[in-house]
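Notebook, p. 212. Picked up where the previous page left off. The plan for this session was modest: take the two constructs that came back from the sequencing core last week, fold each one, and keep the raw output in the notebook itself so nobody has to go hunting through shared drives later. Recording the first one now, exactly as returned: residue sequence, then the structure token string.
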Amino acid sequence: MTTIRSIGLFVLAALAEIGGAWLVWQGVREHRGLLWIGAGVAALGLYGFAATLQPDAHFGRILAAYGGIFVAGSLAWGIVVDKFRPDRYDVAGAAICLVGVAVIMYAPRG
């Protein structure tokens, strides 16, 4: 159950961070205004809280593993929201990152 909770928190963190950054991007680069920027800043704050709820107590481990989630999540966001088509190298890189997440977070430790 701890692993499922951890994965769920990583997904929540990714949605908040990537979504928040996207909202800020839309507000600034696409000239959608301060409401979009403010919503993005709030979502980015939610990301910070989601990361603190991970069951592991080591900040460095959590952020290192989250980096892999961020890479894969960013590509997924691009596919769903921006209709981006990753090439095989994008997919391979994201898969390598997710293997790294699994090793860092979920390998048995003594």
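Okay, moving on. Second construct, recorded in the same format:
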Amino acid sequence: MAISLDRSDPNFTKQVAAKSQQDIASCYQCGNCSAGCPAGFVYDLQVSQIMRGVQLGLKDYVLKARSLWFCLSCSTCSLRCPNEIDVAQVMETLRHMARENNSVAVPAVEKFFKSFLATVRYFGRSYEIGTMVLFMLRSGRFWTDVDLAPKALLKRKLGLLPHQPPEGVKAVTRIFERFIEQNNQRGAS
């Protein structure tokens, strides 16, 4: 695939470097990040291609990549980087930037992520059935994998009720509220 540098945005490179607090320029394209990525087989752009796109200021090319949403955040790429770039942090930063630019390439993953976080916010930990229900409501995928629920319930892999709330559930809720408040303040400024 040919890449056009006509739409190169050097400010994009600076923004990613500043937001991720990583030295993007020190990536010399060794490919260790891509070679070790356990999710790389489903990526449209390999991690090294994303890093190169960031270096070249190819904002649309990078932020529209489906790979951002399939990243497992396992940090294998970061651990393998000979220049100690936290590549996983760069990927997380790019996901945030894609959200800000309304460039979520895989909406179902984003809907699942929001559903999972909603249950953690209210119950202090993951509530599997709640996550499934919220995801189905958000995605409109009402019958996907419904056949698995009875089997999981019988094997006690899913509970109908949330787990006993952990001691720190109020602290977890406050963290979420503080984060939401900070984001609202940033959006207002």
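Notes on construct two before I forget. The chain has two domains: 7-100, 107-188.
Flagging for discussion at group meeting.
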